[in-house]
Write a structure and sequence with these properties.
The protein is mostly helical. The chain has twelve helices and no strands. It has one domain. It has helices at residues 12-37, 39-61, 74-100, 109-113, 116-137, 142-151, 155-161, 166-177, 181-215, 226-243, 246-265, 269-277. Helix 3 crosses helix 5 (116-137) and helix 9 packs antiparallel against helix 11 (246-265).
Length: 278
């Protein structure tokens, strides 16, 4: 039985601290779910799209703009599809884990997998609607984009944690962020930069390794040496692992969701029960 309290009034500092506390308490079950259900998709996506990325930059360097159409084959679109599914599954797994641990017990892989397919498709539907909304808001410059982005940023948490519909999740997020726009914006900015710092810390070995391999000439055109292949595999795995760090951001946003629920709705069931006991 774990000690982490989900429903709790928090300031930004508490959300940062508690996000990492949650990971420390649940790294085994959450990490196992991410490694088994999400990481393979990111690895497949990396290798499907890597050749296209290399060719894209090679064409730009050579000022060759005639061969871009040849890059968009079935393999390319398959990589994009898997990338979308990986991102959706990462979000759903993280939030489902939070939902399952609200009662103080560890989440099992079987419980996390329950309803994962409909939840992933619900998330993709929400993502499409939010992308259209935010894309349209960009037509009116940056301020509406940021305003609506913050107002709807808790939609994914409401979608999974409360099992809301897509429109219900957007409405719930709008209501919760009323009078709390700036604090929610602060959480988003701080958690995003923390996620990026951790990502760069993990990507640094990849950058150093890339420099050493390129300096040794192991990645020259047509090279199929063991070192070049090993480098590409390591690069793919480490890059995929860094993609999982988005879970830090999702946990932080979910804790802001719990925080606003507590502030607006007067306490969790746990708090009420503890009050009765006292």
């Amino acid at each position: 039985m774990q000690s982490f309290v989900h429903h709790k009034v928090r300031d930004i500092g508490d959300i940062i601290t508690d996000s990492f506390q949650y990971i420390r308490e649940h790294y085994q079950t959450l990490g196992k779910a991410l490694l088994f259900f999400v990481l393979p998709m990111y690895i497949i996506q990396f290798f499907l799209l890597k050749g296209y990325t290399d060719q894209f930059f090679a064409n730009i360097q050579a000022n060759n703009f005639n061969d871009f159409s040849s890059l968009f084959s079935g393999r390319y679109f398959l990589g994009i599809l898997i990338s979308i599914l990986a991102s959706a599954t990462l979000t759903v797994v993280t939030l489902k884990h939070l939902q399952l641990t609200e009662n103080g017990y560890e989440a099992t892989p079987e419980e996390i997998l329950e309803d994962i397919v409909p939840n992933v498709f619900k998330y993709i539907g929400l993502y499409i609607i939010l992308s259209i909304t935010l894309g349209f808001s960009l037509l009116f410059f940056v301020i509406p984009f940021f305003f609506f982005g913050v107002k709807f940023c808790l939609s994914t948490s409401a979608l999974i944690l409360e099992d809301e519909s897509i429109t219900g999740a957007m409405r719930r997020s709008w209501e919760l962020t009323s009078n709390h726009w700036w604090s929610t914006f602060g959480v988003l900015i701080v958690m995003y930069f923390l996620m990026m710092l951790v990502s760069y810390a993990l990507l640094l070995p990849i950058s150093i390794l890339s420099f050493l391999v390129i300096d040794a000439g192991a990645t020259s055109a047509g090279d199929t040496s063991f070192i070049a292949n090993l480098f590409m595999i390591i690069n793919g795995i480490l890059t995929a692992i860094t993609s999982l760090l988005s879970t830090i951001l999702f946990i932080g946003i979910a804790l802001q969701y719990y925080n606003l629920v507590e502030r607006k709705e007067g306490g969790s069931l746990r708090s009420k029960i503890e009050g009765l006991v006292d």
